[in-house]
Amino acid sequence: MSDTPSSESAAKQKPAHFIQNIIKRDLDEGKVTSIVTRFPPEPNGYLHIGHAKSICLNFGLAKDFGGQCNLRFDDTNPEKESDEYVESIKRDVSWLGFQWQGDIRFTSDYFDTLYSWALELIRVGKAYVCDLTPEQAREYRGTLTEPGRNSPTRDRSVEENLTLFEKMRAGEFDEGRCSLRAKIDMASPNINMRDPVIYRIKKVRHHHTGDKWCVYPSYDFAHGQSDAIEGVTHSICTLEFEDHRPLYEWFIANLSVPATPKQYEFARLNLNYTVTSKRKLRQLVDDGHVDGWDDPRMPTISGMRRRGFTPASLRNFCERIGVTRADSVVDVGMLEYCVRDDLDKNAPRAMCVLRPLKVTLTNYPEDRREEFVAPGHPNRDDLGERRLSFGPSLYIDREDFREEANKKYKRLVIGKRVRLRNAYVIEADECIKDDGGQIIEVKARVIDNTIGQDPEDGIKPKGVIHWVSAHDHLACDVRLYDRLFTEESPGSGGKDFLESINPDSLEVLTGCMAEPSLANAAAEFAYQFEREGYFCLDEKYSKSGKPVFNRTIGLRDSWAKIAD
RNA sequence: UGGGGCGUAGCCAAGCGGUAAGGCAGCGGGUUUUGAUCCCGUCAUGCGAAGGUUCGAAUCCUUCCGCCCCAGCCA
Hints:
This protein has 14 helices and 27 strands. The chain has a 7-stranded mixed β-sheet. It is α/β, with parallel strands linked by helices and 564 residues long. The chain has 4 domains: 10-103 and 221-266, Rossmann fold; 111-217, Alpha-Beta Complex (Glutamyl-tRNA Synthetase, domain 3); 272-307 and 473-564, CATH 2.40.240.10; 356-469, CATH 2.40.240.10.
């Protein structure tokens, strides 16, 4: 019996955003009978959190409205593109949980059609071969406040243009020698309409078409027409393309395209303490500030995957931040919340001591061993249970012991008691220091009959700490990550963004000790190390028998505020 | 200083003439063998500003202010 009335769930539903409203209206009015969207990355780098927003939007819309979403590589500039990027993008989209409709598309698959459309434009006198060099073209274009001037070759005959363009295609001209331009309006207040270049010469091998072409269509000439070829109904891009929309529409109106897609723009994602420009991410990689595109500190999809972020958490994040036309900077804390939210619900629990401190139980027989059973998750029986072996010698975290402390400190203190998670309550008697005054061991006593119950004398411990036994644990390393930048907006105020790199964004802990069950950890599988945070195996640095764990994200820590 | 956009809490974001949803963060409290989770409460007499229209304005009008994008043969 379902007791969730649809009205109640409807009341809790997130309100539709402006693009969903546009689609609803188009469907209602019969402008389209079903929708087609597309995610169109250029394969010139790795995908990042900003792309995740676009992916979730485009694939999400198709799902919500029963339409389809294509994956199309917008590969019109062979100089920057490669198969390595194509492969990583395919992997990232799939990993995020989306499946594109049909085969993967490449804009380069449409080069023949695009070329014929260029000829079509020439034949109706709406495109011409321009002999201006790139530098001259810039001068002729005018400025933001001054109109441009017509190219000296703007009025060539159709025949001459056809001949010249064919020669361009045949490789008879050097790069930059000439270009094909749309004949629109050199005085337009919109600079994109001042006779934009639609074909340029690039004698570069293309990752997908090889050496077939030496002229390549520009983004503006390729994008809308490719949308039309695929039957895309709603072509969604970011705000900076807004000024290109009149041009997008001009091509659709002036060419014999099979459909009339419409372009809509939304605000790209910005996150504080993060950079999301391809140029900057590339620089972090190339200059060696990080371990590669998939460094766990990177906001790339591959970096976040290695870090231990889950597809569901990223999708949830994209859902929560909304889709609008207002420039905004989302607090990275929102992302962290989504990651914790998903991991808390799904990650099995385990104990791992990050900074070991030896504890000897003086009243526990030296040769005695016990086994305790602990739940895999405090409120999910389906996650099973694990076995913990207990003995007279243990390790706890250095942070969890103090010789003396005030009442706010709820961990182990001399003369006080603490609960060992899933095991006994113990009481500390003394600690031993080395010559440098460093505490190297704690002597403590087990309080009898405290498994699953409070001490019989009524003196209850205030806190609970995690532990591993000395005789049975797994040695491991742990890599702790902090935000990559120390400033909310790296590189703002004319500074170089590299100046605000956080020198402490990576802390490698060696000699950590985990409970034995962690020996079976697999990459991309999250655990909660109780009281520490969420962790997953790092595939790159782990070796058999010596795992390395990445801290995906720490637990929320209200003690940190009290401790200050 | 041309053109195109955008301004609702610390952050994100609903709202579309009927008297400011929700989430994150924060703060206070409760439960707890994780200082976690969970639960409860609290958080905009005001929507960039000033005028105007109206019984009534975040929503309509006017003016002003601020921020973002555009002068690649990049996307």
